[in-house]
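Each record in this resource describes a single protein on a pair of labelled lines. With that in mind, the following record should read easily:

===
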Amino acid sequence: MTTTTILLLLFSLLIAGGLSYFQYIYKAKNKSKVGWFLAFLRFLSIFGILLLLINPTLTKNTLETVKTPLPIVVDNSGSVSFLNANEKAVELYKKLEANSALQEKFDVQLYRFSDDFEPATTLDFKGTQTNIDAVSKNLKSIYKNTSYPTVLITDGNQTSGNDYVYSFDATNKVYPLVVGDTTTFLDFKINQLNVNKYAFHKNKFPVEAFLHYSGTKSITADFIISQGKAVYSKQPIAFSASKKTETVSLLLPADKIGLQLFKATISSKEQEKNKYNNTKNFAVEVLDQKTSIALVSAISHPDLGALKRAIESNVQRKVKIVKPNDIKSVQDYTILIFYQPTAEFKTIFENSKMAGINTFIITGNNTDFNFLNQQQDNLDFKMSGQKEDYLSVFNKQFNLFAVENIGFENFTPLQNAFGTVTTKGAISVLLSSKIRTIETNAPLLAFAENQGKRVAYLLGENSWKWRLQTHVDTQSFEKYDLFIDKVVQFLASNNSKKSLVVEHESFYNSGEAIEITAQYFNKNYEFDEKARLTIAVTNTKTKQTTNYDLLKGNNSYKVNLDRLKSGSYSFSVKELNSGTTYSSSFEILDFDIEKQFINPDVAKLTQLASQTEGKVYFPDQINGLIKTLLENEDYKAIQKNSVTKTPLIDWVWLLILISILLATEWFVRKYNGLL
């Protein structure tokens, strides 16, 4: 309290005392006890009001003892239960929690984790993932700038997240308390299985398997890939004490369209403690890539044969060379290639627009550019009758689809009419043109998409020489044919806009996040934030249907279906206001990652303890752990002096007291007839 405040308080006492004495004692004719009582009440009231006006700040010092935090973190995942260590984990957890000496020295705080990190209220060991990395991140967030030890009760088998060995703060000791049987058993395991989610019909897709063996003797196991009763591959794999891993790569035929389920198995005649990790189910969605293409031309040219051969190098493509007036129904074709169109193409141009069929327009010396300007509005041609050779320049920023530069800059030039080509609207240019050494910045190969209809433009003839040049350079047509196949694949995909767009996978592994997202658009194709979306999920075997609401997120609606068991499901998403629906299906593969282990990962937990200067303990060493924590002089309670400053005006009770004093004075004066 400052000197000024003290002087003001003394001055307030004089004013309050003087005023109360003058009113009730000095002026009073009869100096009675009532007068002295009223003077006292008035003195307190005036002094209280002056105190509020001065508003002195009251300072309070409090000594506070701050203990070192001791987080005890328990692995609540299914792997602990699978290793029959859940009861031991609970026993260790309760023994640490109940230890009075630890409670006296530390601020003991209890947590549990599996795929998430949270306070430990109960332990059920039903977590579907183990993320020890999440423990380190959360502890760093909770105990910032604090030195503390951590007791980690776990088997050390992480199934998600970053490597936890180096994620913990190296200055804060971690004491792993390992649960689970550390005895080494003979075991075969499929560590990892890599496979593409999609494959094209009549092609082959790669499968890569990483196999692991735990044991000491030399042994041979069979690695089998099957579908139902059909065995696609069976090969013996030799293991020994010095050879504990093997990588197997093979190609499987995609001979059936749709979602195909496969099973990978490694087995032998030896007895194993855990056979669950011998099998992994996987799925591949085989897509039908059949495309029927009409190559429309009124003239004969080597480009036609080169294009047909390049496109048909993919067995799923079929090309028919026809004249403009020979096509009876454009709906019979997925793509129409217009080679050097003239006025003779008018009917087929109009029919393709009405049918919404994607087109590939190739120009050359016989093209009627005035007609072409009338039939499309992506490019504007102002061409002369003079011929010109155009070299190509590859655009590295092109991002409509992945394409490799196969040496376009070294290819022979394409021939086209000399003139100016101007782009209109959104055009993606893959190749721009160059006349000798001068870049024109005009497109040579470009793509456009309007209202779901896709168009490609190749401005020049003699592209057959490009295919020939590729063979000269690489002794194969493969690179050029693959390039043309990419163009055809883009045109074969129709990306027409829908009001209800739903994104989901064709299959999921049980235990992983199963999230379905949806977007609903109004008639102006604007995201509708007021849509009401529901989803009905039906198990195709049990016919049991469950309904969920999709919750609005950031420009999408989402639903989480993590609790579904393995099996085949059909579902239907419906927008309740408009009645718009989307139906599809997905498969949940029977794969529990928490059942892949037969032992705790002692090596990794030891590495973690060494990294943080802690120590690994086993259940029978828990007393040693408690002793280490209690004897560690780095963790001492700290006394802090807590200073609290409170302005007097915040005292509500002082205001109430002043009101009571004034009210009491009034009633006493009233009672004694002094009013």
